[in-house]
Amino acid sequence: MKIIKNYRKLGHKKFMQRWKQGIEGITPLQQANNQIFFTIIVIIGILCGFTIALINLKTLWWLAIILFGALGNTLVSLVGLYQRRFMLQKFDTNIEEFMEEKNEMV
Questions:
Q1: Which terminus in the chain has less CB density within 10 A, N or C?
Q2: In this structure, what are the phi and psi dihedrals at residue 27, rounded to the nearest 5 degrees?
Q3: pTM value?
């Protein structure tokens, strides 16, 4: 794996320094997109677990209840992430338009 090779090549201190610089360079829009992607993966896992719990409802009824609550909570979180992404996209568009207008004035 490339990450392991880089870690061995650079050493712990230098590798962590570069990793930190990369993490700090992530824009809020990229962060929101990543959160949406991984939240969808979590929802898929919850649905798989919920399906298995429903198949074995007599013994796993308690798990179905827990996963049902987790699904609702995660869906609400996903809606919030979509709203956040929409606002960030709108903000980026507004900044780009402002910069274009500013450049045209000069």
A1: C
A2: -80, 160
A3: 0.74
What's the full length of the chain, in residues?
Answer: 106
Distance CA 68, CA 42 (A): 13
The single-letter DSSP state of residue 26 is -
Q: Are 41 and 62 in contact (CB under 8 A)?
A: no
The residue assigned the tokens 């230098």 is: 14
- What's the one-letter identity of residue 64? A
The two tokens of residue 72 are 């609702």
SS3 106: coil
Q: Is 49 exposed, middle or buried (0-12, 13-18, 19+ CB in 10 A)?
A: middle
Q: What is the pLDDT of residues 2-40, one digit of tens each?
A: 767 777 788 888 878 877 887 888 888 999 999 999 999
